[in-house]
Amino acid sequence: MPRRTLRLRRAGRPARRGAQPKVVALGGGTGLAASLAALRRITGDLTAVVTVADDGGSSGRLRDELGVLPPGDLRKALAALCGDDDWGRTWAEVVQHRFASHGELHDHAVGNLLIVALWEQLGDHVQALDLVGKLLGAHGRVLPMSAVPLELRASVRGHDPARPLAVSTVCGQANVALTPGEVREVRLVPSDPPAVPEAVAAVLDADWVVLGPGSWFSSVIPHLLVPELLDALRETRARRVLSLNLVPQPGETDGFSPQRHLEVLARHAPKLAFDVVLADQAAVPDQGSLVEAARLLGATVELAPVAAPGEVSLAGRSEESGGGPRHDPELLAVAYDRIFRMHGRIGPWR
């Protein structure tokens, strides 16, 4: 049988017309992937800083068996940075492909195995991720927020339905993301994890920093619990955008209003200011309350249609949970581009 070959032209970076804004996006999961898919359309200088507290699925199994960082959210970020040509689409599908079997490979993602193999070969998290990005023709760089695996722990009121006022500790990102009850606070173990130096440098050197969207307590806020990274976010001269979810996430932020998301973030990172809060205009029933909550963070509110048409429902499932409303990359790109142009400092990239 003749051997089939796949001939693809390797994706190049977009042509640069002068300098472009240096953008750093922080988050995890499909929320960060949505942001990256938008941002790569408007800048060629893009860095993703990804949470490393995942302990479920393929990532959790690899973490437990090999003691490595969970690769899943890093893989999703790399796939989101792939281009829209044949090379990019093919590699995005390959790294996201999951095996289906009755054996040990079941549900492992190809990209997870590739990333872990390069970590073992090279002994360097950043160098390995850069090499995967080069292979994929990724339109940006992907970095872990910390070089050590982290455990997420949450204080949850009403986790036990029989004790609705009691506060329990829920351990593990996968459990926190789906926990019943009201999440009051999250923390990391270890409590003082080292940040990846390249991630800190990227934040300090950025023109814009984008935080969110994504699972609020398990993908967004964890970045603010890494001391060196939080210090960089406070000290950077970059302007900061906080990008809100389309709907609350069942379990983790069930019943949260848009302004409540801002309030809990501020409680975890006092004195961290933002310049702009971006929200879908159809997902904000009380604009006045959101404007006031944003003002307390030093930010203005930008409302824009950023959801895939016809998908926003305040009672729907969250994007991060894998169903329901999703951000539209092109609409989100338009919103980011307008924010960068309207609120950006005059500089060489303007």
UniProtKB/TrEMBL annotation:
Gene3D superfamilies in UniProt: CofD-like domains
SUPFAM superfamilies, per the entry: CofD-like (SSF142338)
InterPro entries xref list: CofD, CofD-like_dom_sf, Gluconeogen_factor
Subcellular location: Cytoplasm
Main location: cytoplasm
Gene Ontology terms describing biological process: regulation of cell shape
One GO cellular component term: cytoplasm
Gene Ontology molecular function: any one: LPPG:FO 2-phospho-L-lactate transferase activity
Keywords, comma-separated and alphabetical: Cytoplasm
CDD domains, A to Z: YvcK_like
Pfam assignment, any one: CofD
HAMAP family cross-referenced by the UniProt entry: Gluconeogen_factor
Similarity field: Belongs to the gluconeogenesis factor family.
PANTHER family: GLUCONEOGENESIS FACTOR-RELATED (PTHR30135:SF3), UNCHARACTERIZED PROTEIN YVCK-RELATED (PTHR30135)
Functional description taken from the UniProt entry: Required for morphogenesis under gluconeogenic growth conditions.
The name this protein goes by in its record: Putative gluconeogenesis factor
Organism field: Streptomyces oceani
